[in-house]
């Protein structure tokens, strides 16, 4: 139940970020709903295809699509009356990244895959939808322009797996993993944190 709830919240948050991106790009209502859906289910769809999980999660359970429609519609109504804060897209994206990365990792973990594949699948689940959103709204993907993006997802998933190895209750491990990803992303946005850059020696 906890996993399912996190998945639904992640879908809702990424749908919100899709509508915010559509609004900034001047898309119409249909474009807003399409971008919300693409952002919310893009990463999970790619994960399910690679893991050969059929039917794909949103086809198996139409409640995901219902959550997307509700979240997108409410966001559209909100931005008609109140302009969203300047960093709202980054904050919504950070929360969606945290929730989806951990839920994606759990799915790969339940399939009995190696820790490395679990980390990769979780990071991909958290980042792919946002990449598709940015490409379709004619923006350079955040993963290429924002420091500590995929790195934040990887860090949180590794912490989650380590806590699991230490026999920490799953709910606590999930919570800590989400907080680590969200915390690293928010600090990176607020303080401009980044990994060391590669420079050629001359």
TrEMBL record:
Q: Where in the cell is it found?
A: Cell membrane
According to the record, the signal peptide region is none
> Which GO cellular component does the record give, naming just one?
plasma membrane
Q: What is its main location?
A: membrane
What are the transmembrane regions? 31-50, 62-82, 143-163, 172-195
Pfam families cross-referenced by the UniProt entry: Gly_transporter
Annotated keywords: Cell membrane, Membrane, Transmembrane, Transmembrane helix
Xref: InterPro entries? Gly_transporter
Membrane topology, as annotated: Multi-pass membrane protein
- Domain Glycine transporter, first and last residues per copy: 5-77, 91-164
The record's comment on protein family reads: Belongs to the UPF0126 family.
What is the name of the protein in this document? Trimeric intracellular cation channel family protein
């Amino acid at each position: 139940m906890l996993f399912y709830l996190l998945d639904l919240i992640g879908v809702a948050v990424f749908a919100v970020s899709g509508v915010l991106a559509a609004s900034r790009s001047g898309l119409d209502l249909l474009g807003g709903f399409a971008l919300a859906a693409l952002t919310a289910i893009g990463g999970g769809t790619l994960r399910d295809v690679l893991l050969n999980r059929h039917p794909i999660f949103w086809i198996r359970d139409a409640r995901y699509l219902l959550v997307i429609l509700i979240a997108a519609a409410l966001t559209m109504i909100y931005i008609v009356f109140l302009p969203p804060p300047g960093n709202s897209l980054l904050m919504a994206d950070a929360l969606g990244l945290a929730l989806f990365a951990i839920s994606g990792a759990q799915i790969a973990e339940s399939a009995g895959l190696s820790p490395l594949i679990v980390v990769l699948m979780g990071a991909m689940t958290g980042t792919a939808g946002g990449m598709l959103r940015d490409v379709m709204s004619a923006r350079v993907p955040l993963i290429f322009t924002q420091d500590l993006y995929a790195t934040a997802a990887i860090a949180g998933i590794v912490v989650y797996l380590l806590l699991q190895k230490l026999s920490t209750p799953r709910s606590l491990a999930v919570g800590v993993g989400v907080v680590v990803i969200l915390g690293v992303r928010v600090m990176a946005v607020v303080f401009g944190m980044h990994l060391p850059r590669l420079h050629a020696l001359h």
